[in-house]
Amino acid sequence: MRPRFLIPLLLLAALAVALALLAARHPPPPYPRPPARHHDPMPAGHPDFGDAAPGWMAEVIPMHQAVRRAGQRFEGRVLDIALLPPGPGPSPLVYRIRLLTRAGDVLDIRMDALDGRFLELRGADLSGVRRDKPNRKD
């Protein structure tokens, strides 16, 4: 064998041995892999919805629909939306939506998470943020 082919061949053999040793040291994960979690567990200090009826979560309107309803009724940019835990009020589950108005004020909207009714509205200049043609389907 010619010397110019000998050195690359030895390097290739050494690389193959090193990769084989590395693969033997760290076996691949078992197949099939465990299913991916759909959500992370809630961090400590957050409310637990364990005492809510199981069917409620299936009936809750999605967050994007709640944001769309609020956007149809009020002008502003959504800052935050949160599903509040069951409380003593008229609705067991409530979305809290915070909007930033053009004037720079924060509008706090409480919406029934089961049927999308507006329950409460707080903020400055409430008449100025309401759209001309409100959504009357609510």
From TrEMBL:
Region spans: Disordered: 30-49
Lineage: Bacteria, Pseudomonadati, Pseudomonadota, Alphaproteobacteria, Rhodobacterales
The entry's keywords: Signal
Official protein name in the record: Peptidase propeptide and YPEB domain-containing protein
Organism: Paracoccus solventivorans
Keyword Signal: yes
Signal sequence, renumbered to the chain: 1-23
